[in-house]
Amino acid sequence: MRGGDDPHPEQSNADYNKILNIIYLKHLNSKTIMANTKEKLFTEFPPVSTEQWEAVITTDLKGADYERKLVWKTGEGFNVKPYYRAENLAEVDFLGSQAGEFPFVRGVRNDNTWRVHQTISVKCAKEANETALKLLNSGVDSLGFCFCESCACEVDVDALLKEIVPSAVELTFCGSNVQGLAALAKRVLAKYAAEPKEALRINFCIDPIIKNLSTEGDFCCKTGDECFDTIAELIKATAEYKHIRVVNVTGATFSNSGSTIVEELAFTLSAAHEYLVKLMERGLTIDEVARKIRFSFAVTSNYFMEMAKFRAARLLWANIVKAYNPEKQCACKLFAHAVTSAWNQTVYDPYVNMLRGTTEAMSAAIAGVHSLEVLPFDYAFEAPTEFSQRIARNSELLLKHESHFDQVVDPAGGSYFIESLTKNIATEAWALFREIEDKGGYIAAFRAGFIVERVKASAATKDKNIATRRLILLGANQYPNFTEVADAAISEASVTRKVAEGNVLVPYRGAMAFEAMRLKVDRSEKSPKAFMLTCGTLGMARARAQFSCNFFACAGIRVEDNTFFKSVEEGVEAAIASKAEIVVVCASDDDYATVAPRVKELLADKAILVVAGAPACAPELEAQGITNFINVKSNVLETLKDYLNKLGI
Prior knowledge:
Layout: H1 13-44, H2 50-61, H3 66-70, E1 72-73, E2 79-80, E3 115-122, H4 125-136, E4 142-147, H5 151-154, H6 157-160, E5 170-174, H7 178-191, E6 202-206, H8 208-216, H9 224-237, E7 244-250, H10 252-256, H11 261-280, H12 286-290, E8 293-299, H13 303-322, E9 336-340, H14 352-367, E10 371-373, H15 386-401, H16 416-438, H17 442-447, H18 450-467, H19 512-523, E11 529-534, H20 538-553, E12 558-560, H21 568-578, E13 582-586, H22 589-603, E14 608-612, H23 618-623, E15 629-630, H24 636-646
Parallel strand pairs: 3-4, 3-10, 4-5, 5-6, 6-7, 7-8, 8-9, 9-10, 11-12, 11-13, 13-14, 14-15
Antiparallel strand pairs: 1-2
């Protein structure tokens, strides 16, 4: 070292060499110690067999039923174990492939990038263009333009796409009119005729099977054949465009109508297969058709199941296309767009929708999708604001640029749990797909009522689970915001479930029944109150008071909680003074035999008396005229409706 650079000029080079040698030796020793420690760790913890795990679990259960306590019975047709081990992967036959390799379980590419998508409702081409340019400057790289039935034919393409560089952004055009979108496609291609064909990334979301037949009852054209003829012509016209797709299989419709994950996957694949068949009948090859299909799936808050769904979707679609012997394997790749669930959203406590959207986006990002749209938190009750749109796209940008979800391909791959879920979902979805094929394909099965009947049955099960709180929608049927009152943005239409006659799918939101009930209370001239009369054993009194507050607040009934009353007389006096229409006795089961009759005697007919819990003495209490009970087994929705009826609401 030169003298001028030496921080300690009094030390010689020999001293520095000694120091470096000491550091080097310490480094070698630390590596040796770590290696020895690692070896000891492995030897000190011998393998534990499944039998040993099960024996310990059986002991800890103390005679409780293993299946009821620990096995999750899904609505998808299979059970989920409490834990998984390497031996569970022996049944999984798709392991070993990498991302970009058939059957594409781990992804269709060697990276995990996705496009941030946001949709603009087009009413005025100029205004839509202004919004689009703002979005492009805010991190969005996939733009969606959604048209009403006639607007697509009439829109000014030049004004709509002004200053939008097609090579820098993916464009998506959607609507329900097949002929209108086909005409729009020709005009968009004419506008970009001078652009390199390789640079254009455009999706024309034509979907007469789901958007028209399944939700409106019939095709928008005079006949279904006319729709398929139009699509076939468009495929031929865009044959040289590698990144232009003209068919969108809108699988999100099934999920938002209440289907299970397996049903969404099976029905979506079945509709997509129908497109393959119908379009190949018109002289197109499997390669030409498959590469023009885009899938659109919903992502619910069922976190791990949704990850497995996308992996299973790629597996099944790859095998469906392969059965037609495509010339190139890339035709087997599933092109997936994901949109966070509208079914899960709530209009009360809407900021919770931000949390739902974030976890749902995480599922899609980890599973690997081409593009992703996070719905704004106010999507369910108003035209999204600039603030809500910013929060929605920032959810994705944070996952990308701060959490780096785009840096790892299929991070869930190899997980015993996720791989087993993928196989189970694929198995059940394939069985349902085959059942539809046996009925003549999607269109035949739909016209026979099979699809709608299955979705309605699943939706009814979900509705019941929401009503009984087996399925939680935070802010709606559990832990509502006690002080929230619906503002003007929440209309009766936004909480009312649409009813359609005939054989059609009807999207709705799971929280609507609770929200409609609560809105009636908020819009009524009354402001009903439930008073918590806490007495007896303190611990049970407080626990049941908290339960009861959450119970009644779900209907918009104001709650007055109380820490504790030393006597029944003190509690009843305070309850009468509060002028509450409902008085809830909160005590222990042992206390109710004496407490509840005394409350009834003192309260008389001044309020509705409710007992919180399901005490063994309930028959004796009912014999004394105490008939109102609430507990964890109650149908919360129907019970609250009954109380509102008694209150004249």
